[in-house]
Amino acid sequence: MTGLLDRHLAVVTGSGSGIGRAIALGYAKQGAQVVALDIDGDSAAETVKAISRSGGKAHSFTLDVRERDRCRDVAAQIELKIGQISILVNNAGINRRNAFTAEPQAVITDWQDILAINLNGVFNVTHAFLAQLRATKGRIINIASIQSFMHVRTPNSPAYTTSKHGVLGFTRALAAELGKDGVRVNAIGPGFIETPLNEKVRATNPDLVRIFLEHTPLGRAGKPEDIAGPAIFLASDLSGFVTGSIIMADGGYRVV
Ligand code: NAP
Question: Which residues of the chain have pLDDT under 70?
Answer without folding.
Answer: 1
